Every structure is written in C-alpha cells, then in structure tokens.
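New here. Invent one.

***
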Amino acid sequence: MKRFTLKLRPGDWIIIILLLALSAGVTAMTIQLPTGQHAVVTVNGERAAILPVGEEAELEVEGPLGITTIVSDADGVRIVDSPCPHKLCVRMGRVLSRGQTILCVPNHVAIRVEGDADDGVDGVTG
C-alpha cells in the first residue's frame, strides 16, 4: 500500500496566506461601526436637510422624479417611499452606523449617516 504525503509548494503557501488575509479583512469589515449622530440628506448633490439618527422624524424631499419620503426612528434612517421605478432605495433598508449610505439614483437623493469626528472611535477599534 502506497502512503500519501502532503507536500506544500511555494504557490500553495501563497494561496494559504491570501485566504488568511481575506478572512481577516472580512472579519474586520464586520466589526460594528459606531452609531452616527445625524443623517445628511442631499438632492442633486446639494444638502437638503439633516435628520437626527435615533429620533422620530419624517422628511419629504423633491427630486427630478417626484417626492421621496425619509423616516428616522430608533432603528435608523430609511426611505419609505420614492417615485423611482425599481424602488431599490426602499429595499435597502435602514442605516444607522456612521458611513452607511442610501442612494436613490433615479431621483438624485442620497442619505449618509455621519457623526462627530472627535469621538475617539474608528471602524477598527469600534
């Protein structure tokens, strides 16, 4: 009976190292980012409003296609209605963490969660 021995070549080690680096990167990206303090709403690239994250608020902004309705509550900020054809922005769900964004490309509406830069916490140590 022939005995099987595993010999790793230099290319095998490269693949192993790349897979370990990829898994470490995915793990780092899944670390919860700190909750943002406010959401900046822009229409056609211009600031339209600022909504507090975590507080009850509703906002209607008008884009080229019509009115987009945005709601902020304890669970985050989301688009609840938009005149765009595919409603991808509505299906994106809620955003709560700093840096998260919702886009309604057809109606030129963007929502980005932001916070104070001096809170001493970043995405790596969060």
